[in-house]
Design goal:
- The chain is mostly beta strands and 116 residues long.
- Helix content is 0%, strand content 57%.
- The strands form two sheets. Strands 2, 4, 5, 6, 9, 10 and 11 form a seven-stranded mixed beta sheet that branches.
Protein backbone atom coordinates (compact mmCIF):
# COMPACT_ATOMS: atom_id res chain seq x y z
CA UNK A 1 0.00 0.00 0.00
CA UNK A 2 1.18 3.50 -0.82
CA UNK A 3 0.79 6.44 1.54
CA UNK A 4 0.97 9.92 0.04
CA UNK A 5 1.66 12.97 2.20
CA UNK A 6 1.27 16.35 0.57
CA UNK A 7 2.87 19.66 1.44
CA UNK A 8 3.12 23.08 -0.13
CA UNK A 9 0.31 25.16 -1.53
CA UNK A 10 -1.08 28.28 0.06
CA UNK A 11 -2.08 31.71 -1.19
CA UNK A 12 -0.43 33.76 -3.90
CA UNK A 13 -1.26 36.65 -6.19
CA UNK A 14 -1.96 36.11 -9.85
CA UNK A 15 1.25 35.63 -11.79
CA UNK A 16 2.99 34.06 -8.82
CA UNK A 17 4.36 30.58 -8.29
CA UNK A 18 3.87 27.72 -5.88
CA UNK A 19 5.29 24.23 -5.59
CA UNK A 20 3.41 21.24 -4.30
CA UNK A 21 5.14 18.16 -2.95
CA UNK A 22 3.85 14.64 -2.44
CA UNK A 23 6.05 12.32 -0.40
CA UNK A 24 5.33 8.64 -0.87
CA UNK A 25 5.96 5.73 1.45
CA UNK A 26 5.25 2.04 1.15
CA UNK A 27 6.41 1.68 -2.44
CA UNK A 28 8.65 3.31 -4.99
CA UNK A 29 6.93 5.98 -7.06
CA UNK A 30 9.15 5.08 -9.99
CA UNK A 31 7.01 2.00 -10.54
CA UNK A 32 3.74 3.90 -10.54
CA UNK A 33 2.03 6.43 -12.70
CA UNK A 34 1.84 9.56 -10.55
CA UNK A 35 -0.38 12.54 -11.04
CA UNK A 36 -2.09 15.62 -9.71
CA UNK A 37 -5.75 16.51 -9.93
CA UNK A 38 -7.79 19.35 -8.53
CA UNK A 39 -11.31 19.51 -7.25
CA UNK A 40 -13.56 21.64 -5.11
CA UNK A 41 -16.79 20.18 -3.72
CA UNK A 42 -19.52 20.70 -6.27
CA UNK A 43 -17.09 21.15 -9.13
CA UNK A 44 -15.84 18.66 -11.66
CA UNK A 45 -12.57 16.90 -10.95
CA UNK A 46 -9.81 17.89 -13.35
CA UNK A 47 -6.68 15.89 -14.00
CA UNK A 48 -3.88 18.46 -14.04
CA UNK A 49 -0.76 16.48 -14.87
CA UNK A 50 0.66 13.01 -14.80
CA UNK A 51 4.05 11.40 -15.07
CA UNK A 52 4.21 7.83 -16.22
CA UNK A 53 6.62 5.20 -14.94
CA UNK A 54 8.71 5.70 -18.08
CA UNK A 55 9.04 9.41 -17.30
CA UNK A 56 6.73 10.73 -19.98
CA UNK A 57 4.42 13.54 -18.90
CA UNK A 58 0.97 14.77 -19.83
CA UNK A 59 -0.81 18.00 -18.95
CA UNK A 60 -4.28 19.41 -19.08
CA UNK A 61 -4.60 22.10 -21.74
CA UNK A 62 -5.46 24.61 -19.04
CA UNK A 63 -2.02 24.31 -17.42
CA UNK A 64 0.30 23.52 -20.34
CA UNK A 65 3.32 25.77 -20.38
CA UNK A 66 2.69 26.92 -16.80
CA UNK A 67 2.83 23.78 -14.65
CA UNK A 68 5.59 21.18 -14.51
CA UNK A 69 5.27 17.75 -12.95
CA UNK A 70 8.40 15.97 -11.83
CA UNK A 71 9.56 13.29 -9.45
CA UNK A 72 12.65 12.61 -7.43
CA UNK A 73 12.99 8.85 -7.20
CA UNK A 74 15.74 9.06 -4.59
CA UNK A 75 13.45 11.06 -2.31
CA UNK A 76 10.38 9.13 -3.45
CA UNK A 77 8.62 12.44 -3.91
CA UNK A 78 6.40 13.91 -6.59
CA UNK A 79 6.30 17.63 -7.34
CA UNK A 80 4.11 20.10 -9.15
CA UNK A 81 5.73 23.42 -9.97
CA UNK A 82 3.04 25.96 -10.75
CA UNK A 83 4.05 29.21 -12.44
CA UNK A 84 2.05 32.12 -13.85
CA UNK A 85 -0.83 31.20 -11.58
CA UNK A 86 -4.29 32.48 -12.40
CA UNK A 87 -7.34 32.97 -10.18
CA UNK A 88 -9.01 30.08 -11.98
CA UNK A 89 -6.27 27.79 -10.68
CA UNK A 90 -7.74 28.21 -7.20
CA UNK A 91 -8.74 24.78 -6.02
CA UNK A 92 -7.93 21.85 -3.76
CA UNK A 93 -5.06 19.87 -5.25
CA UNK A 94 -4.48 16.16 -4.72
CA UNK A 95 -1.67 13.84 -5.73
CA UNK A 96 -2.44 10.30 -6.74
CA UNK A 97 -0.75 7.12 -7.85
CA UNK A 98 -1.88 4.20 -9.91
CA UNK A 99 -1.17 1.57 -12.51
CA UNK A 100 -2.72 0.41 -15.74
CA UNK A 101 -5.15 3.30 -15.95
CA UNK A 102 -6.52 2.89 -12.43
CA UNK A 103 -5.78 5.37 -9.64
CA UNK A 104 -5.41 3.57 -6.35
CA UNK A 105 -4.04 6.04 -3.82
CA UNK A 106 -4.57 9.73 -3.06
CA UNK A 107 -2.96 12.36 -0.91
CA UNK A 108 -4.86 14.34 1.69
CA UNK A 109 -5.19 17.44 -0.50
CA UNK A 110 -3.79 20.93 -0.22
CA UNK A 111 -5.48 24.24 -0.93
CA UNK A 112 -4.15 26.61 -3.57
CA UNK A 113 -5.65 30.10 -3.64
CA UNK A 114 -4.76 32.64 -6.32
CA UNK A 115 -5.99 36.19 -5.87
CA UNK A 116 -6.36 38.72 -8.66
Amino acid sequence: QVQLAQSGGGSVQAGGSLRLSCAASGASISTYCMGWFRQTPGKKREGVARINSDGTTEYADSVKGRFTISRDNAKNTLYLQMNSLKPEDTDMYYCRSGRFGVWYYWGQGTQVTVSS
